[in-house]
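Hi P.,

Sorry for the delay on this. The queue was packed all week, but I finally got your sequence through. Input first:
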Amino acid sequence: HGPLPAGLCFLRAMVEARFEPGTRVTLQGLAARPELNGEVVVVLAPASAEETAQLEATGRAKVSHYPKALSLRAQSLELAPPPDWSRGLPFPISDIVRGAPSVLEVAQAAVVAGEDLGALGRIHELQGAEDLAEALWAFCGRGEVGPAKELPDDFAELVLDTPGHWLYWIGLEQVSHHVIVEACDCTWRIYQASAPRRPQPVAKADEKALATGKGFEEFGGVLLESGGAGRRQRGYRAGAWASWEASDVPSASSSGPPPPDVVELDKDKEVHEELPEELLAARARWAGGRELTWEEAAIFLRLIADLKEQARDLALKLKEQTPCSKEDDEVAAEWARQKLEAASGDFTVMPSRPGSPRSGPGYAEASDLWLFSPPDMKPTCDLSLPTTAGFAFMRTFGQLVGEYPDGRCFLALLEFLGWESLEREDGGRVGWTLRARDLRGGGQQR
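Then the structure:
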């Protein structure tokens, strides 16, 4: 019958080797670029019909590689083995973050012997996102925490398409958060923490609502979630995030009362409230040391890019309401910084989640998101945002972090206004930053 056309050979090779888009493959037999042999990459879907036709005609596959994807013949690819998360490391990063017994035993033995292993035995207990990122970064870099670079426009491609075993510290300072992404042979894990916060103090205006079992109060003809309605202690520790399972928290759709020994990620066993489906979905998607595919990791990184764009727009809207509306961004940022430093309590966001009830005649759906300063702050710092923008930001934040942003997060939008022109004493950038550490290259920061 003669040889098959190149396109059919390619398709048969793809099917037989299961090299469909998303498949992890190892590069082999590359004579022109032998330094790439052994690297694990991902087969990518063609970007257009024209590219599809070209790949089929030449019997090639498109695979990930930073800064530019590669087009390689199917015989140069073989199915990759599972990722080796512990290669060259004393422990897998996931074991360190969740506080695995083997890690804690070594840390305790080091303490007894008088050896310094840094925060190895305490990383799982860390509550702040930045504290977790800095401690993990310093441990993996033998104490070194180099300056941060500005988050590049193509950061998602960098994290997704760079082969090897890397740790990425993505600083989202303008929204008071930090994320650690571990990339190992085209598989990804997410580590983060969200400082646990007690329910807001019950204001007098809320007492009646709570006494009657209602979680909402009236404000300007609109029913809003009561400041004391948040019965759930928010936030989670690093170890609880890394070891989380879907059964740990009851969802809003769960039937019956929550189990008596289940509260939420930090397992303080003090308060009970169902997690909104949106937050539960985020934790199920990113937490628990779950291994993410290329496509899933791309979604997570897209959320960061969306949040950055939304933060810029909201910061400008908030600036318009400050006494510094006509001043430079630096003046408005300093105003917000002073407010944050002067606050003895928390700023209150109402509604605290994206949505407001419509209950009975005479009440409208909220058209604004309010940010109230602590009662003892004089002068007050009360700001508002249209719900169309405010709720979108809250949802994106929730889908990324597994918690909705608090009041201080909204003030941070202003505090880091004009971040593009700011620089730290060590020459590092501010606002939206990136650090990369090559775990197979001696842990060097690149």
